[in-house]
Amino acid sequence: CPVQAQQGLPNRRKCGAQAATELVQKLQSLIINRKETAMKAIVIGGGIGGMCAALALEKSGYQTEVYEAVSVIKPVGAAISIWPNGVKCLNYLGLGEQLRALGGNMAMMAYHDFRQGEVLTRFSMQPLVESVGERPCPVARADLQAMLLNRYGAQRVHFGKRVSHIEQDASGVTAWFTDGSDARGDFLIAADGTHSV
Question: Which of 91, 136, 183, 195 is the least buried, fewest Cβ under 10 Å from its Cβ?
Answer without folding.
Answer: 195
